[in-house]
Write a structure and sequence with these properties.
410 residues, 50% strand
Length: 410
């Protein structure tokens, strides 16, 4: 149990760390950023498909029942080739959807540091458009979020002049398109892993060794708070609490939004693979968490109890190391799980997963689907009817979802 004295000591230590953070505004460096806003060039990367996606119901999760009728149907609307740098394709790392725009980040697996960002207009459900793109020749982009004509990018960089490779870059948008007008914030550890905006604050996770949760006030771009969380991987907030998922082993750490006081620190099974991805989505009293070798876990934020667990799949022709759970997303009753080369698994509940309780009614496994050449699925994000899937070197997939016989809860 963490005592108030320990909390005070940790916060005092964090205040000392604030001298390590700085914001650096500078003119664009030559060839560091390449922005592409030409419609004809961008459209060459996107292919309209408009084909149904068949769910394989033979690969079921052993601890979940199978429904008598499939309540979910999917259509592959489009495929997007990944950005390339010197002929090297990048891999999508995160997806953020706001209103009728979708923002996607990319990085290079391994060396060197290379990254990119795409913006899609998804107003027309039948005809998504790639409207803007940018490449970074010196930085991976691991996560992103949007607020008031700015994108905030969680990065690892090879640039000089920072205390560590972990940085956050603030990118100005004009007319929904990217520009090379940027500002960079220094944060501790090897990589900024995720970012989230709530109110007037930017929340950043960084890790693995020497990981932190850093809070930046957007009105003056100053660091208000930093708290050490080893191997901090993902973050979400409901406006009252800030919830962080960390690894080796799995932890969920909860802070009070206003006071930055540490409220709870829960430990779970999973997330034992170093330098791996984990995600978290908060829905009032519940959180849906992707924990690598620990699969998907739905937890109660009141007491840290595990409500439901979906283990990583066991696939006959695949090594378990490539079928861990990288990300999970939900909107309404459906749950979409990215399990690496095993593809995307789909579960469904009688209850809306965003309901204000710590119950999940009759969670059932619907089935799964894979893409060609066993493309590893790194990230998933659902919003309204759209499901975005980061298919590794296979690029981005844009799907339409439908829950048969049930009204959409959005």
């Amino acid at each position: 149990m963490i005592t108030k004295t320990q909390i005070k000591k940790n916060i005092f230590a964090s205040v000392i760390l604030l001298i390590l953070f700085s914001a650096c505004t500078e003119p664009p460096e030559v060839n560091r950023i390449v922005v592409e806003n030409d419609p004809s060039t961008l459209s060459s990367r996107l292919t309209i498909v408009d084909e149904p996606v068949a769910l394989d119901t033979s690969l079921q999760d052993g601890n979940l029942a199978k429904p008598a009728i499939n309540p979910v149907s999917l259509t592959l609307l489009a495929e997007v080739d990944p950005p390339t740098v010197n002929g090297e394709p990048l891999q999508a790392t995160d997806i953020y959807i706001k209103s009728n725009k979708a923002y996607v980040s990319y990085s290079m697996i391994g060396e060197p540091y290379l990254g990119a960002v795409d913006i899609f207009n998804v107003r027309d459900e039948e005809d998504p458009e790639l409207i803007s793109s940018m490449i970074f020749t010196d930085s991976d982009v691991n996560g992103l979020t949007y607020k008031s004509n700015y994108l905030y990018l969680a990065m690892a960089t090879s640039r000089s002049g920072f205390d560590s490779p972990a940085v956050v870059e603030k990118v100005r948008l004009r007319h929904d398109q990217l520009t090379d007008e940027t500002e960079t914030f220094d944060v501790p550890s090897w990589a900024a892993t995720d970012v989230e905006v709530s109110g007037n604050h930017l929340f950043v996770t960084s890790g693995a060794d020497g990981g932190h949760v850093t809070v930046i006030k957007l009105s003056n771009d100053e660091v208000e708070f930093s708290y050490p969380v080893e191997d901090a991987r993902g973050i979400d907030t409901d406006g009252d609490e800030v919830v962080v998922v960390a690894g080796t082993p799995a932890r969920v750490v909860i802070f009070d939004y206003d006071s930055a006081e540490l409220l709870n620190d829960f430990t779970f099974s999973g997330a034992n693979i170093p330098f791996s991805k984990s995600t978290i989505e908060v829905f009032r009293r519940k959180a849906v968490v992707a924990l690598g070798d620990g699969g998907t876990q739905i937890i109660c934020l009141d007491d840290g109890s595990v409500i439901e667990t979906i283990d990583p799949p066991v696939v006959e022709d695949l090594d378990p190391a490539v079928t861990v759970t990288n990300a999970v997303t939900t909107s309404g009753k459906s749950l979409y799980i990215s399990d690496g080369e095993a593809g995307v698994y789909v579960a469904w509940s009688q209850d809306r997963l965003s309901s204000n309780n710590c119950d999940v009614d009759d969670l059932q496994m619907i089935g799964n689907f894979r893409f060609g050449d066993l493309q590893s699925v790194n990230a998933v994000k659902v919003k309204g009817r759209y499901l975005f899937i980061a298919g590794g070197l296979g690029g981005l997939k844009i799907l339409e979802t439908e829950e048969q016989g049930f009204p959409f809860p959005w």
